[in-house]
Amino acid sequence: MKSFCTFCKRSDSHFILKSVSLILLTLFSFVNLQAQGPIPLGDSTDSRAACNTPFNDLHFGPITFSSNCSCGLTIGYWFAKPGVVWPDVNGTAPGVVTVGGYNYTQEEGLAIWNTSNAGGLPDAKKAFLQATAVKLSSSTILPTDPIWADVAIIDNWLSTLPKLTPTNIYDFTNKDAADAAGRIGVWLSDHDCDTHPIGPVTVDSSITREKGPGCDSLFTKTWTAFQSCSGTTIVTQTITVKYDIEPPVPTGDTTDKIANCNTAFEQLSFGPLSFNDNCDGPISGHVDTNRAPGTGCDSIFTRTWIVTDGCGNTTIRTQAITVKYDHLAPVASGDTTDRRADCNTPSSQLTFGTVTFNDNCDGAIQGTPVTVGTKGDGCDSVFKRTWTATDGCGNTTTVTQSITVKYDSEAPLASGDTTDHTAACNTPFEQLTFGTVTFNDNCDGGIDGHAEISKMKTGCDSVFTKTWSAADGCGNSTTVTQSITVKYDSEAPVASGDTTDKRVACNTPYSQLVFGPVNFNDNCAGIINPEVTDTKVGGATEAGCDSVFTRTWTATDECGNVTIRTQA
Sorting pLDDT into bands at 50, 70 and 90, what band is 34? Predict the structure, then answer.
């Protein structure tokens, strides 16, 4: 807030005053302005009106002026002039004045006035009368007049004394108060309202217009107030009006565009855009950016520039940047389970799964298949098909399917002793020992074979045949056999023929002896030739002359069953 007197310049005994505040103008009335012109009251603050306000709608001030002159009436008027009635200066009742903190009625005051002055005017009486005269004249004395300082000196002294009466008026003295009363007397004499009346205040006004900066027009109203007793006061008020109906002009690129996928908002590049106004020059405005969903996964960021000049002329520009936000890769559908095809299937006949791709943003996407064959374990070949699908934001999904094919046309190889042989007669089956056979495949390595045993009977022979079969993963098979023949025979050969002991003629030569004959037949082997042994007992000995010739036939079949016959 500026001081009331923006400039005070002495010229031909007048003060030119520029008022800037209604509040300070009001306070100005409390300043000693006797040597100044009339006191302005009202708001003369320079201001700016709304843009394009017509001249006839401008509101100046209002400014009024009050007198800047003081005058009073002497003690002779208030105490000696007949018919004078004291006014209500306390705001309570007419004829009462407060001096030194005590209320005095007009009757009490006149009683003090009428006391004797023999021996000189007492200090208390002199001070009371002069202070009372000023207070009773307060309606014509400016509150800022210096005379009130002397009244305060008297009030302060009298407040220390008892209330004055005609009987104690002579009891009190005070040089400072007496001197103040003397100065008041001189002032009232010099400013007697009867001899120095206060003239009227006359006011003239005018309004001028001049061009200000830019598009401004400055309207200045000047009030000139004159009062013969105080001089001239000049107050001015300037109202600035901007006349502008053109909106700001934008410059820059606001073309809508599409940014890279997943571009962060803070990395989007809008504009740039600048604005220039015909009156205000370069100006900045309000910038707002909003986000709205677009098609699919698109987000549309729209930046709006709203620029308003000092007169409310507005320019609006927008720019939209579309960004696709997609972090999800396409989703694959279809059977891509790894599997094994039949052995020796040509690669051209392999059937891979049907794979499709669907993207959360782009919908159906065509995948790219690539098939590569590599060697697997053993005789396997692995054909791997890879489908790759990439959406518009570079998110990629890869799925694979492997089909394994074994290429093998060689049968397994058997190892071990599979020679056919004959076991001992009557060997129990569970005691037969077949060869140990293993199988090895060019592709599958060691593989287990399947064994079966069959039995075929011929005569007394039983032929036990063990058959080993082994097939590899591709169905190539190998079969080997081993036969063990076992003769089951527990019957001895059967003898036939005459084996009766007998006596032949004396002296029959041994070579002419006729034994048997005896034949042997076996249930399994048929006719068996026996082993024949002859023994001799006796002769020309103590036993007499008999010689006993004993022939023994021993027939043994293939299983060791024995039949013995003797004849003597």
Answer: very low
